[in-house]
Amino acid sequence: QVQLVESGGGLVQPGGSLRLSCSASGFNLSYYGIGWFRQAPGKEREVVSCASHSISNGENINTYYVDSVKGRFTISRDNAANKVYLQMHSLKPEDTAVYYCAIDGLALRPGLNCHIEFVHYGPGTQVTVSS
Question: How many CB atoms lie within 10 A of CB 49?
């Protein structure tokens, strides 16, 4: 059974850091592009970051970040653990949202495209940035 589960969210003060994890089961995550998304109350879900598959590129994956998180968030893959991470630094109140991971619906897609259909969203993890 294909499944993604997010973890690592919590309550953090502005300027703090969190590392979100996305654990995959039932398939090899290395074959798929991966995306991190977030949805704040009353807002639409938005893509935060995404990364290409790592079968042909190994550690040299292509990555994308929405402008609002550039320089603060880093996406990374751990193929051995079948996980993807989102390291978040300098968190701001506007980063408060439920964060989700999902995979590209097409295995081994060439290049990187964060605006395609992602599938198998996890249940999400709440990130709250507040003093």
Answer: 23
